[in-house]
């Protein structure tokens, strides 16, 4: 089976591409500039392109990632996350390809979650990033889908794995340098997504034509608190966790100063580290006839942490 992947050079793209290649799929890529025979540039994305016409599945990963420091102009999010998605989906509709898999985000639905986020929650994104993803979703769902084609809108929560450089890497550095974690007073629960589980689900979708298209959240089975994550990191690298329960009001004041001085701790990063954000993965498990995903939340974190240690 032949696949086209956009965004193959990013963290998720590298991991997913490597996994699918090892599984036996033929991959072609879309990039800003074409550098290889199996790669086409965005300017050559047309339904008549021979690479596109030979593809069975489109996997659209390319996008402008959420900038926690808020330095990206809002129009950039819409130009990339919405505009490029429209271009690629229109091309897919005109091509003989079977499947279109769009990587959106849980942030296309909600920036904060009360309870558990499932696919029935009405979208209400508050940031340009989330709004640009939601507008892309709306466009995809509004287009008539020809018979024999499937559309999947994938909404992952925070993804981690080898090569990840997000907040999990920041926590790892805190523990590794034996710096006390000062946010232990925030009692939160949030969902994570191991790249191993993401790879597993996408391959299942591609290989099983009976799976119905639609919107699917992706998350590991068990949510974890940030304090639990700190403990797992410490145990994995053989250190004793240092958890400080400083006054939350004081910490929020420091984060406000960080917003102005561009310090590592900002209001947005504090929110990401301490908020409740639980995502249900029940819908995708139901269609895959699974009780649980292959990798537990703790197992996935240990794999990621060991990859940090190796580098």
Spatially, the strands of the biggest sheet line up as: 3-2-1-4-5-7-10
Count of spatially separate domains: 2
* Annotated CATH homologous superfamily of the largest domain: NAD(P)-binding Rossmann-like Domain
Strand runs, count:
11
Structural class: alpha/beta
- Counting DSSP H or I runs of 4 or more residues, the number of helices is 11
Give the biggest sheet. Answer: 7 strands, parallel
Strand content: 5-15%
- State Rg: 20 Å
**CATH fold naming of the largest domain:** Rossmann fold
Helical residue percent band: 40-55%
Order of helices and strands: EHEEHEHEEHEEHEHEHHHEHH
Mean pLDDT: 93
Shape: globular
Q: Ranges with pLDDT <50 over ≥5 residues?
A: none
CATH architecture of the largest domain: 3-Layer(aba) Sandwich
Q: Any overview of this molecule?
A:
There is one protein chain. With 311 residues, this protein is α/β, with parallel strands linked by helices. The chain folds into two domains: 2-156, Rossmann fold (3-Layer(aba) Sandwich); 165-190 and 221-311, UDP-galactose 4-epimerase, domain 1, CATH 3.90.25. The protein is built from eleven helices and eleven strands. It has helices at residues 11-23, 50-53, 74-94, 128-142, 167-176, 195-207, 226-236, 248-261, 267-274, 282-287, 297-310, and strands spanning 2-6, 26-31, 39-41, 57-60, 99-103, 116-117, 150-156, 158-160, 192-194, 214-218, 278-279. A seven-stranded parallel β-sheet has the order 3-2-1-4-5-7-10, sandwiched between helices. A two-stranded parallel sheet has the order 6-11. A two-stranded parallel sheet has the order 8-9. Strand 4, helix 3 and strand 5 form a beta-alpha-beta unit. Helix 1 packs across helix 6, helix 7 (226-236) packs across helix 11 and helix 8 (248-261) crosses helix 9. The chain starts with a strand and ends with a helix. The model has no long low-confidence stretch (mean pLDDT 93).
């Amino acid at each position: 089976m032949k696949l086209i992947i956009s965004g193959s050079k990013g963290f998720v793209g590298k991991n997913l591409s490597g996994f699918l290649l090892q599984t036996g799929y033929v991959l072609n890529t879309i990039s800003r500039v074409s550098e290889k025979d199996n790669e086409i540039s965005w300017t050559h994305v047309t339904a008549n392109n021979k690479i596109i016409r030979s593809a069975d599945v489109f996997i659209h990963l390319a996008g402008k990632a959420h900038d926690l420091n808020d330095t990206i102009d809002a129009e950039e999010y819409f130009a990339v996350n919405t505009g490029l998605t429209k271009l690629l989906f229109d091309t897919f509709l005109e091509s003989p390809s079977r499947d279109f898999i769009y990587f959106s985000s849980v942030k296309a639905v909600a920036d904060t979650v009360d309870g558990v986020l499932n696919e029935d929650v009405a979208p209400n994104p508050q940031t340009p990033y989330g709004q640009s993803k939601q507008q892309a979703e709306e466009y995809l769902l509004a287009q008539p889908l020809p018979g024999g084609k499937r559309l999947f809108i994938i909404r992952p929560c925070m993804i981690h794995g080898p090569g990840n450089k997000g907040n999990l890497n920041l926590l790892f550095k805190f523990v590794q340098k034996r710096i006390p974690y000062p946010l232990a007073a925030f009692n939160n629960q949030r969902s994570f997504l191991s790249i191993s589980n993401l790879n597993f689900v996408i391959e299942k979708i591609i290989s099983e034509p009976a799976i119905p298209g639609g919107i699917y959240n992706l998350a590991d089975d068990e949510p974890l608190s940030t304090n639990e994550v700190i403990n797992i990191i410490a145990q994995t690298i053989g250190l004793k966790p240092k958890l400080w329960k400083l006054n939350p009001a004081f910490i929020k004041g420091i984060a406000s100063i960080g917003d102005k001085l561009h310090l590592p701790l900002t209001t947005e990063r504090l929110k990401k580290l301490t908020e409740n954000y639980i995502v249900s993965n029940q819908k995708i498990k139901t269609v895959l006839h699974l009780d649980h995903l292959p990798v537990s939340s703790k197992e996935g974190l240990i794999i990621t942490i060991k990859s940090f240690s190796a580098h």
